[in-house]
């Protein structure tokens, strides 16, 4: 015989606690984060190119200045070496101090340097 | 003795005390180290454009150091004038920027804050603008980008 008021309803619904966001949400989130990351990488690559351009031009602007200074020093050493050569070879008839061994008018920097 | 002797590997110092020949006019060397030069590079390019191009054209004619001494002196004098002007007008900004470069591996992008102050001062006092040739059309030049990806690790 049923109890008065009838049986209580059968508990057939699942009673599971919430286990965090669904797979779709996580997948979507990961995709979004990755997409943003790649966007930043792309922007960063473009920026890197411009930074490189800036660096190169800052050096290009300094080339004449440094070259001029180096040239003055090179010229000073060249003249000193010539003077030394003239002094050493003064007894050899027909010796031309500083004459190149090549028949080429274009400039060649010295193959050897003298460390005094 | 046909081998090239690297002065850096020599056991003796690579010095030659002989001065320049007397017929060459003397010019005081700039004597500025790398960080201030890098800080002033774009202003140097703008201020001394004519002299620099003249010198480089001369060098293209002939690579002999004796060929372009006159143009080279002009370049150095112009650079000296610019550095003097910078120091007269924007001393604190200039020093701040190049000290920042010195402390940050001489990378411009670490020092944008100091650079903007310096650029503003130089534009107001000397009228020189930093422009990077070859920047794509319609894009903000990299030194004026408000929120760049590459910044210093510590701001």
Automatic annotation (TrEMBL), chain A:
It is found in: Mitochondrion inner membrane. Keywords: Coiled coil, Electron transport, Membrane, Mitochondrion, Mitochondrion inner membrane, Respiratory chain, Transmembrane, Transmembrane helix, Transport. It is a single-pass membrane protein. One of its GO terms (cellular component) is respiratory chain complex I. InterPro entries: GRIM-19. Its main location: mitochondrion. The chain crosses the membrane at residues 20-39. Residues 65-92 form a coiled coil. The keyword Membrane applies. Belongs to the complex I NDUFA13 subunit family. Complex I functions in the transfer of electrons from NADH to the respiratory chain. Accessory subunit of the mitochondrial membrane respiratory chain NADH dehydrogenase (Complex I), that is believed not to be involved in catalysis. This is NADH dehydrogenase [ubiquinone] 1 alpha subcomplex subunit 13. It comes from Lentinus tigrinus ALCF2SS1-6.
Automatic annotation (TrEMBL), chain B:
It is found in: Mitochondrion inner membrane. GO terms for biological process: mitochondrial electron transport, NADH to ubiquinone. GO terms for cellular component: mitochondrial inner membrane. Keywords: Disulfide bond, Electron transport, Membrane, Mitochondrion, Mitochondrion inner membrane, Repeat, Respiratory chain, Transport. The keyword Mitochondrion applies. It comes from the Eukaryota. InterPro entries: NDUFA8. Residues 1-20 are annotated as: Disordered. Belongs to the complex I NDUFA8 subunit family. Accessory subunit of the mitochondrial membrane respiratory chain NADH dehydrogenase (Complex I), that is believed not to be involved in catalysis. Complex I functions in the transfer of electrons from NADH to the respiratory chain. The immediate electron acceptor for the enzyme is believed to be ubiquinone. This is NADH-ubiquinone oxidoreductase. It comes from Lentinus tigrinus ALCF2SS1-6.
């Amino acid at each position: 015989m049923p109890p008065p008021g009838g049986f209580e309803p059968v508990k057939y619904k699942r009673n599971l606690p919430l286990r965090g966001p669904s797979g779709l949400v996580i997948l979507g989130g990961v995709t979004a984060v990755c997409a943003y990351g790649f966007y930043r990488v792309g922007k960063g690559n473009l920026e890197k190119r411009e930074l490189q351009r800036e660096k190169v031009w800052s050096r290009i602007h300094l080339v004449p200045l440094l070259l001029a200074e180096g040239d003055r020093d090179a010229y000073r050493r060249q003249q000193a070496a010539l003077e030394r050569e003239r002094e050493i070879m003064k007894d050899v008839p027909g010796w031309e101090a500083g004459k190149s061994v090549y028949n080429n008018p274009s400039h060649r920097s010295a193959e050897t340097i003298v460390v005094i | 003795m046909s081998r090239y002797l690297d002065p850096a590997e020599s056991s003796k110092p690579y010095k030659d005390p002989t001065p320049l020949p007397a017929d060459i006019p003397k010019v005081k060397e700039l004597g500025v180290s790398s960080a201030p030069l890098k800080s002033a590079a774009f202003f140097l390019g703008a201020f001394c454009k004519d002299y620099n191009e003249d010198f480089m054209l001369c060098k293209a004619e002939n690579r002999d150091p004796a060929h372009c001494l006159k143009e080279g002196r002009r370049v150095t004098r112009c650079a000296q004038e610019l550095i003097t002007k910078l120091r007269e007008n924007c001393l604190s900004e200039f020093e701040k920027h190049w000290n920042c470069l010195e402390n940050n591996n001489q990378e411009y992008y670490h020092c944008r804050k100091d650079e903007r102050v310096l650029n503003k001062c130089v534009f107001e006092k000397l009228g020189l603008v930093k422009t990077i040739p070859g920047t794509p059309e319609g894009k903000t030049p990299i030194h004026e980008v408000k929120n760049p990806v590459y910044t210093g690790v510590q701001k």
